Amino acid sequence: MNEAFFDKKEYKPLDRVxxxxxxxGAAKYSAEYALPNMAYGVLVGSRIAKGTIKSIDxxxxxxxxxxxxxxxxxxxxxxxxxxxxxxxxxxxxxxxQPLRVFYDNKVYSNDQPIAIVVATSLEKxxxxxxxxxxxxDQQEHQTDFxxxxxxxxxxxxxxxxxxxxxADYDRGQTDAFETAPxxxxxxxxxPTEMHNPMELQAITAHWEADDRLTIYDKxxxxxxxxxxxxxxWDVPEQNVKVIATFVGGAFGNxxxxxxxxxxxxxxxxxxxxPVKVVLTREQMFTMVGxxxxxxxxxxxxxxxxxxxxxxxxxxxxxxxxxxxxxxxxLMQTRMMYASPNVSTRYRxxxxxxATPIWMRGPGEATGAFALESAMDEMAHxxxxxxxxxxxxxxTETDPDKNMPWSTKYMRECYEEGKKRIGWENRKLKxxxxxxxxxxxxxxMGTGTFGANRGxxxxxxxxxxxxxxxxxxxxxxxxxxxxxxxxxxASNTTGIAPEKITFHLGSSExxxxxxxxxxxxxxxxxxxxQAACNALKEQLITMxxxxxxxxxxxxxxxxxxxxxxxxxxxxxxxxxxxxSDLFKQNNIQKIEAxxxxxxxxxxxxxxxxxxxxxxxxxxxxPFTGQVRVKKIVCCADxxxxxxxxxxxxxxxxxxxxxxxxxxxxxxxMDHRFGRYVTKDFGDYHVPVHADVPDIxxxxxxxxxxxxxxxxxKGLGEIAIIGVAPAIANAVFNATGKRVRHLPxxxxxxxxx
Amino acid sequence: MDKYKSDIKPEKEDHHxxxxxxxxxxxxxxxxxxxxxxxxxxxxxxLGEKISAAFETTPVNLTVNGVKKQLAVEPRSTLLDVLRxxxxxxxxxxxxxxxxxxACTVHVNGQRVxxxxxxxxxxxxxxxxxxxxxxxxxxxxxxxKAFIKHDGFQCGYCTPGQIMSGIACINEGHADSKEDIKxxxxxxxxxxxxxxNIVKAIQEVKNGGQRS
Lengths: 751, 212
Known about the structure:
A: Aldehyde Oxidoreductase, domain 4, B: 5 strands
């Protein structure tokens, strides 16, 4: 497309287009559709982590007032998708087979849904659920990561395909580390973390006919969810309607279909009424995925001049016994720095727990904690400034893929970040800066994520008053998708943003993938451009027929809309009133549906977004309390389409990184295989008082090799690298290296 | 609280009436308790809903967003669930049900209250303001405007609670400094991480001396 995408006119950053709905309480989330005759479902979870259900006594529950049904494997109706394939019809995250809820008497993890109580009110369903008595044949479970780490295995995908990102990888010599002049070797642990979006996972399931299902569901992909449940019930895809107009945060846990969704749909079928299921906060820890506990070991070798000699990076990530969940924990190690010798080993540890799922900055955020901590450790060992050390290993091409970068503006990020955080106040020697009684430290961490793009289709309609209305099945979990798409459409057409509407979040709309992997703006944005340009072409044809050769020779880029008129650039006389043109042609509106797909550039270029996070912390020498005083986030994410919402997205990522670094830790009691941290009182996410001013800098240079909008994606790089920036700042403040997150005060005692 | 300028006029409370109704209902409940089989039988015939509607509820009179409501609620129902499920006022959000996240914050008689920890039956005669009651027609409350201007949200789910808390925070006199705001807003969690922008919005409303 055109290089001048953003030069066409100056524009004021848009306020969120759905802002008014959100501040007035009018935005409807998936539990907020009041359907006639609706019933409420409450899930009963298993009390053991492994074994079989011996009996379920549901008599008392069934007799309780208002209870309509108690459904379990004992009385569930036949689910066609289960029987036909012998496996769950939904796609597993990366391997194995998703849990078939109520399929048999097997228990794979603690709090696995084993029954649903359906009643006429929420309270009655809750009370009914409390009356269900279950007896088990319990088997010995394994949930303790450390005790079982020796049982880690290579991923099935890696066994099948040696080019899989989780396969063993060696570049150069595998023993180069042994002879490096400077060597560090360290182990890093990231505990299990919970997505914990503020909105509880919820679904309202409504069978509008025997073979027609509508669900209001908290998901990140309406089309993928539609496919899943069409397969599960063996009905045509178009018979399943998935509505997710507003999603109250997700951070990855809406990327998979979960048992509670199937349970609600089953219940709605059995009681012949719409059924709403809202998980409890505790169930958010056990039923909808999490960032898997991951152990990592890095061996890093470098020369005196700061050139890396070797990096060996091993990791073990936790998964369930029925699904194999893998993530690209080690990719950043393979491509971020110019080390001639790199080896990575990725292993999985199946435990009697529920399946993990991608959580913001998946894999990369975990890997970056180890890699960027190790980079800081090595810089310290050599006696170099950590930024100088990274610059000494800066690479102008992707050393893993052996390809040029599509774009990479990291040097700009180093310079800007240094300036903004006040890096000159950092001392090489840890523990040497104080502010009153507080120790002061500075640290930084780098992040990267692939500029992934998928196919997307947008339908655009333009009416004679110049209103542009678009539709796409993409969801918005919070970043401001509709706002960004209105901006893209406005830049492409010249139509004022307030005359543009972007509808999303329904499987009824044209196809789009998941909102995940930082791929929305660069996938859907080009489809918006394409649809807008197709509208322009129709107008040019119409205008040429009525108004002569000026318009006949025009290309879509030549025309813009201003105040209801079509203008031909460079020819101020060539103007047409939109309404006249439409009336002359006797039409009310024109429409165009366009698909946009990734180009072949991915075969020639390594396309990635990059981030660099800087943190300044205070650490109290007696209590070990860490206060993050300032964060600077620099992002090389290509074109920043919607500056206001993009900045918020970066601030949000940094906030998530503060939680990762300092507070978030899902602690399991291995006697029961159940989390003891099961609410916000025990599992600490950052609150207002934990979050300082966050300064965001965007390089904002388009990457037109990546996609026509020039965007490389933002959601993941916003968090990748934040936790190590804070950990490195804590080291700089105290001289104490914490390699097991979170950095709680107990780990800093004795300073 | 005294700074809270509400246009809502309190209705004349009639405790006697409601107490009488309560006694009436509870005596029927007692009757049911000694004959549970009757109810069970009725439930089997799908009469459960009507039975419970008639016998298991307690009347409550309260004012929601300026509108007087005569409700029949179960004694165990929280104000949050009654707002969301019975009155279809879904702007008030459920985020934890334990009073730990603040998403369910509403104003009761002008003070911020966690509606998930408040039983609906205890709100007799009280004035409840939810997010739906802040705007005057099309004119948004200054805090709502400030949230839009400063982009004090992303997914929007914690937003109603943040706004209700933000208004209360100013009225309580806890918005004199950024540090104060952060401390007194820390009961309202935002997982998207819009905190700095929320603080900016509250500061602007506070400094603007606007109606709050």
